[in-house]
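Something for you to look into today, if you have time. Could you write out one complete protein record for me, on any chain you like? Leave the record below and I will have a look.
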Amino acid sequence: MSKRKIIKIDEAKCNGCGLCIPNCPEGAIQIIDKKARLISDLFCDGLGACLGHCPQGAIVIEEREAGKYDERKVMENIIKQGVNVIKAHLVHLKEHNEQGYLKEALVYLNEKKIKNPLEDNSQVGHLHQKGCPGSKIMEFSQKAPKTDKPVFKTESELGNWPVQLMLVPPFAPYFNNADILIAADCVPFAYASFHQDLLKDKVLLVGCPKLDDTGVYLEKISQILKNNKVNSITYCHMEVPCCFGLVDIIQEAIVQSGKEVKFQEVIIGIKGDRLK
């Protein structure tokens, strides 16, 4: 180890709001036990993209003994999250004139046969947008003018409680012989046909892979699968990169359970259309 610049989080000041997380494309910060934590020295480049986004002033840059930042490990983590996160990371390095790290990142993309998104104007996002595209502010116009026509009510398809993944007990009786729907928090608000198209005849679990402790998710899903006969898991999430992290966690939980469980993924666009 050698001395280098790296972030330091003051636990006493941190209130766990999570505003720092979308502004760390490298994925060095997670909310664990309701506090922001630096999960690995290897992922923190010490450039401080997260600093100005902490309302409590809980994050500072210090110089200390730390493991060397590993651009290849960062890229291995980033490419799983999609083109927008790749782009945010490359822009981050470019704006801080980190040519060495940028070169390593581009070499890694080339090895994986992934096109450099900075050279493709058709890719989603803007070159000067920092942080996770999932927190980009957007406003959508109404698709049709409002009318005085009566609104037809639909029945709720929710058949279990609680639904929060952090709260649900793994021994709940409704898990036996169940088809489980795990939905990212934003999905039911974006997808108008959520109840009829996705939730019907399924047990619902809801969570946010960006702000919650994904380690708890892995343990909880594994326990549910080990202690119940689960037929299938459907993971429905938004198209933003931060939602994709739960795919690997669910698949790892299935492996840890030692059982054969059918898995499928459904992706919802930010304007409410079903993409996959």
About this structure: Residues 121-131 have pLDDT under 50 and may be disordered. Strands lie at 2-9, 29-32, 35-38, 59-66, 178-184, 203-207, 230-238, 262-268.
